Amino acid sequence: MAPTDETGQAPQQSSPFGTTPPAPPTAGDTGPSGRMPRWLPRALVLALALVAAFQLGSWAFHQLTGLLINILIAFFLALAIEPAVSWMASRGMRRGLATFIVFIGVMIGAAGFVTLLGSILADQIIKMIEGFPNYLDSVINWVNTHFKTDLKRVDIQEGLLRSDWLRTYVQNSATGVLDVSAQVIGGLFQLLTIALFSFYFAADGPRLRRTICSLLPPARQAEVLRAWEIAVNKTGGYIYSRGLMALISGIAHFVLLQALDVPYAPVLAVWVGLVSQFIPTIGTYLAGALPMLIAFTVNPWYALWVLIFVVIYQQFENYVLQPKLTSKTVDIHPAVAFGSVIAGTALLGAVGALIAIPAVATLQAFLGAYVKRYAVTDDPRVHGHRRRGEGPGLVTRARQLWARRAGTERAEGERSEGGRPGDEGSGENPA
What HEC string does 126-177 produce? Predict the structure, then answer.
């Protein structure tokens, strides 16, 4: 056994070089050559799991963006038809049947509008095709008369049929037809998806509200139901007020087109009413382009009359009709409405432009219910006026300015007269 000292520890042997060797590291030391901390592997695994979850969530969100947008559109459509469905349900009709009746009415109206508009376009295309040879002959005669050429329609047609440009255009058009067909099928599937979700949201609205409220405490349930009611009132009011303005706009434009004897006046009036009201900001001018084009085919002056009427009616609608109809539904400032449309378009495109105004109106009403307001002081500056007695009035300032200007002119005249030669004080004595 090795000898020990009084403390019970073995004495350290001295080095032959006169120095004491260092003690061996113990298990608890954490030096450069120590073991890895126990928390580091778990932290690395947690960080990798979080990164993987974020990447997976981002990928799933991008893959489901189209579905989420469809659900958002369906939700707003369900809010729009909620007042009508609730009114029918309060009269004893089953909620599912009431939703079905509203959907059938909307679908019949949309199908009739699309059919009538398609018939107009088809008729106009047929007329253009039938009149194209005569139009081409008139153009050729004008060119031959003014430029002393000898062009013939048969030569031009043969040159077009044998051109490589026409062959390439036909091939590209054949490929484009397949792409358009695929887009049409995709659009129909998207409309079906939106219709199904809208039907379920509207028919099972009470059940959906109960499900959401069951996940929240009672205090939060009241706030959710209040926000839901505000959204229904604002969205439904927006749709119905726009529908009423579309009806008034359609009747006004029908009277004008019928007076000018423009063909397809009823369908064009429906087109102007719907497009001008449900496409924000620029809908009126887009809607007026088609009646102007058809009126131009009748008489160029008729197109000018239609343009003048569209501009005047737009001002009447903005400053007289719209404030009265939307004062209780979507009472938001025109600048706020315009900014919300731009923001919605930047975020969600055309869908955002359509739902931006009711969404902002709902948010404004919800925040207004919780924001405390105070009485405004009766100060003229609040109304954009100056205080009475604060500075001179307009007449007084005009008089002061006139007097100052007259005094300046008088002083300049005296200085010019005092500097003339031969005046008094020049030092010359009279003879």
Answer: HHHHHHHHHHHHHHHHHHHHHHCCCCCHHHHHHHHHCCHHHHHHHHHHHHHH
Whole-number Cα distances in Å, 60 to 54, 68, 136, 348: 10, 11, 56, 18
The amino acid that residue 429 corresponds to is N
| Main-chain dihedrals φ then ψ at residue 427, nearest 5 degrees | 95, 5
The whole-number average pLDDT for the span 110-135 is 74
Cβ of 82: how many Cβ atoms within 10 Å? 22
pLDDT at 266: 82
End-to-end C-alpha distance for the chain, whole angstroms: 153
Instruction: Pick left, alpha or beta for residue 281 (phi over 0 → left; psi -120 to 50 → alpha; otherwise beta).
Output: left
CB 233 within 8 A of CB 358: no
State the amino acid at position 342 in one-letter form: I
Q: pLDDT tier at 185 (50, 70, 90 boundaries)?
A: confident
CA distances from 23 to 7, 13, 361 (A): 17, 11, 78
Taking residues 122-147, what's their average pLDDT? 76
pTM: 0.60
Measure the CA–CA gap between 198 and 313, rounded to whole angstroms.
Answer: 34
Q: Which residue has the tokens 């040879």?
A: 133
- Identify the burial level of 355 via C-beta atoms within 10 angstroms of its C-beta, where 0-12 means exposed, 13-18 middle and 19 or more buried: buried
The whole-number average pLDDT for the span 62-77 is 86
Burial category of 74 from C-beta neighbours within 10 Å (exposed 0-12, middle 13-18, buried 19 and up): buried
Q: Which helix (H) or strand (E) holds 409?
A: helix 394-418
pLDDT at position 428, please? 46
Distance between CA 343 and CA 357 in Å, rounded?
10
* Of 332, 333, 352, residue with least CA distance to 341: 352
Q: Which two tokens stand for residue 402?
A: 């006139």
Residue 333 in contact with residue 318, Cβ under 8 Å?
no
- The fraction of the chain above a pLDDT of 90, given in percent, is 5
In angstroms, the CA 118 to CA 27 distance is 87
Nearest to 237 by CA among 331, 315, 146, 308: 331
* 67 Cβ neighbours under 8 A, 6+ residues apart: 193
Of 261, 323, 262, 252, the closest CA to residue 284 belongs to 252
Read off the DSSP letter of residue 299.
Answer: -
